[in-house]
Amino acid sequence: MSRAKRIMKEMQAVKDDPAAKINLEFVTESDIHHLKGSFLGPPGTPYDGGLFIVDIEVPMEYPFKPPKMKFDTKVYHPNVSSVTGAICLDILKNAWSPVITLKSALISLQALLQSPEPNDPQDAEVAQHYLRDKDSFNKTAALWTKLYASANGKDSEKDVDEAKLYGIDPALVEHFEALGFAKPKIVEVLRRLGIKTLDSTDDATDDKITDELLRSS
Amino acid sequence: MTSVQSEDNSSLIYGDDFDDDDESIDLYESQTTATCSMGDTACHKLNSLVSQESEFDFDEDQFSGNESDDELLVDPMTLSKKALDDDKGGSSLKYECLTTQDILDRMLKRVHHLQPVFSIPSEDILVLMQRYDWNEERLLEEWTEKMDELLVEAGINTSNPGDKLNITMRGIKHRSDFNCFICCEVRSTETFSLECGHEYCIECYRRYISDRLNEGNVITCMDCALALKNEDIDAIMGTPSSARLMDSSIKSFIQKHNRNYKWCPYADCKCIIHLNDTSYLQEYTRLHCSRFVTCKFSHIFCFGCGYGMHAPADCNVTMAWVKKARKESENLNWVLSHTKECPKCSVNIEKNGGCNHMVCSSCKYEFCWICSGEWGPHGRSFFQCTMYKNDDEKQKASVENSKKALKRYTFYYRVFNEHEVSAKLDWKLGQTVGQKVKAMQEKMGVSWIEGQFLAESLQILNEGRTVLKWSFAVAFYSDASHNLTKIFVDNQMLLSNAVEQLSELLQIKNPETTMKRKSEFYNKAGYVRNRTRALIECGRDLLRKCICKPVD
User: Pfam families, alphabetically (chain B) (predicted)?
Assistant: First the structure.
């Protein structure tokens, strides 16, 4: 019973603080244990300008057990799965304490976007990108924000260049397209190998990619 | 036959005498080490120096009554540089049997010792020790480096204890109309807070603590890093719950130090064996020996692999064997039916005693449980069923090898299993023997000490069976064409025969005659013991000479 009371009180607390720009609402009126939260991307980061929606499931043991949170919005971030939106954050796991609220958890997520922890990654591919080439990572993350998290409705996703979506140098993709490989295949292989750019003199890696392409086609 | 006898004699020599004095060890050494002749005084000295007498002694001191284990299990030949360098001699092999409570008591003692160094309350040191996984050295190191930071990090209240505010803040209070932030209920209730003033109702605190008691970490205030002390936990929970937290903390300590601490693998046994110096274990592995340890409840297990007593097999053979057994067991289910038909009249027979000498209750046919053959030849000369007769040998080479391999394995697995079942039945037998001894004592006025030969014989029987059981794993992985393997099989037969005879002797029907046959018990048990040692030695030789190689 106290769980319902607590959730209602937390909802009220979010409404009472519009300056935080955090939103929390029930998915359906009949179920108070399934919520959607949203917050704005922190300014000065590639997530600036985006609205990020988080799916929240409140367990029976709440607030003694943490709520289950995952991103509904696609996010390009080392600690967030680029496929499922699963989040790797200690306070949502073993560092949870009953004094943490849904609001403070959402604020923590906002802070996580601000300062990624690439050494404790959820998405290894993204984390590798982050560690190897910060600028390229930032570009990709900003592109994802624009594509998937822009507040003014969804842009058509179809127009997006696949290579760009994963921060891969378009010239590199063109190079392999010229060899007769299909673009989706090239992107897939490059993602698997974790290669974003290639020095034109690096023949060994070039051969490796070609081998991989031949093997998978 | 003659060759078997001579092997028998020599193994008896070192089996019997190796722990009598240094000289006999030298004798054994000279037999095995080609470079060391008997007359060589320098070599003699070296051998006396590195003899492991003192190391036996230690274990015998700790576990008197189990002296036979160490004779059996510690290889007298495990001589190494380590033992030479070690001033204390036995310390490398030293082990002790503890419970979590023993370890905790020890930790508390250490906390007590640290108290004058830290000059903070013992309870706070306990929190620090938990935080540092009971690692005193690391704690002291960091303490000298950054005392104040350490206290803050560990959540220990550093404000002046005389501070009036603190005293009023801390502890359980009774409040009317308290609004708890956690459960959002407004009511009059007891509350708790530490010096930080983060106050919540006692029920929320109880819930919070009970979720964390089994995690083994320091429990902090829900809203800050300030640590709850054991007395706080007990006060909030109303029961001595901090004991559970300490227990789980010690358990996680053991988990983190699982190279030195091992749980006894027996069901419901809460003993922990602590081996101080594990560097010696490598030497054991190299020599294909295993460090067998005995817990308070006489459970013998291997410190290396955690399985039960498995001599003469080493850990590799044991693990390969167990793995294989797991893999193959499905194929072999049909073989392992617990009943057998009498080979003569086909009546189904269940084996309900430890002895493999079966007498069909229906047709009185005497046969051997293992090979289903007639018992007659078994009793007189050889115990032939330890020898796997390769019937396929005569057949053409075109016979599928895999089928052959499975058949071979099936044979060894079945024999292994039979001995395991027999060992269990022996244990049951032991209970009845115990009762019989009691009956004897009452009826015939036999003193307790006089009845002990039965218990001793039973223990020797058990050891013999275990060694026999594992010897089949060694035999399975051994090169059958090698002469030493043949000697090993001969040794198996001799032990098998001896064990069966002793087992039969222990099926006591009439207590009165048993007392009269006491010397017979002694003879048979002594023989089993010698045969057991000889088989272990021979098995180790097989392993050392790489004739026995575990492969999947």
Answer: IBR (PF01485), IBR_1 (PF22191), UBA_ARI1 (PF21235), zf-C3HC4 (PF00097)
